[in-house]
Amino acid sequence: MQGWLIVNPFLDTQKFQEIYGMLCAAAEKEHIRLDMKTTAQLKCPVGASFDVLPDFAVFWDKDVYLARQLEMAGLRLFNSAFAVEACDNKALTALHLSAHYVPTPDTILSPKTFEAMGYCNLSFLDAAEKQLGYPMVIKEAYGSFGQQVYLAHDRQQAEQIIAGLGYKDFIMQKYISTSHGRDIRVNVVGDRVIASMLRYNENDFRSNISNGGSMAPYTPTVAQEKAALDACRALKLDFAGVDVMFGENDEPIICEVNSNPHFKSTLQATGIDLSSHIMHYIREAITCGV
């Protein structure tokens, strides 16, 4: 069995290389030849045929255009173009989760603007303030590692944050005070919860490890597992890292869903290597023609 590991040509740091190496090593144990390809290497004219395609591809990037091009050529992707796009865009994530009644914070999407105009009229904040109150979480539609997530404590801060976004799409969400600086990363593979960890940060409302957060192994409740699995089903994911917040009575609230999670921290916290579960799932899926 042969596959491609499709990665971004510009993300060549040690952090990413370690993930790629773990996936390739796990594939070898499953008797799979996994060749790494960058999205730049796979570019071809729209409508043209790819010379040779493998049995499948692990799509570890967010180039949705290429993902759709490969799917149209008949290649099975893990995860699919739909799943990658739905997770990468936080506005789409909120829409799909809401449509499937998966619990999320109250969310309002920003109105569409354009590069030459920006958000020159902030009257939409009136409705957001009334519905969400302050503090208010403002998230750029595209972003990773918590870097594009902000907390506005009042109208002035909200306006300053939005001014700094230029014309980027964003969402506004209700601040979940009971989950300040902490959440659960629930790792799902093939409709099963494989490993979970608690993430916490005493110095920031965001729990991301890359922002200075800490981690510990965690056993999720039945309700937390169900919420994570429901989120993955709604977004049609083969595998994912689901960030689950703590509600008023510890009821689960989905914060974000990651289609290509950085699972090294999970390995460090739990001793469980997600790459082996991912590659085993892929081998079984291809063998069964799923």
Describe this structure in words.
- Helix 1 links the parallel strand 1 and strand 2.
- The chain has a 5-stranded antiparallel sheet with strand order 11-10-9-12-13, with helices on both faces.
- It is built from 9 helices and 13 strands.
- Helix 1 crosses helix 9 and helix 2 packs antiparallel against helix 3.
- It is globular.
- With 290 residues, it is α+β, with helices and mostly antiparallel strands.
- It folds into 3 domains: 77 residues, Rossmann fold; 118 residues, 2-Layer Sandwich (D-amino Acid Aminotransferase, Chain A, domain 1), CATH 3.30.470.20; 69 residues, Dna Ligase, domain 1 (2-Layer Sandwich), CATH 3.30.1490.
- The mean pLDDT is 94.
Share of residues in strands: 15-25%
Radius of gyration: 20 Å
Residue runs with pLDDT of under 50 for 5 or more positions: none
Please give the order of strands in the largest beta sheet: 11-10-9-12-13
Overall structural class, as computed from helix and strand content, comes to: alpha+beta
CATH topology of the largest domain: D-amino Acid Aminotransferase, Chain A, domain 1
Global mean pLDDT: 94
**How many domains would you count in the coordinates?**
3
| Main sheet record | 5 strands, antiparallel
CATH superfamily of the largest domain: ATP-grasp fold, B domain
- Beta strands, count: 13
Shape: globular
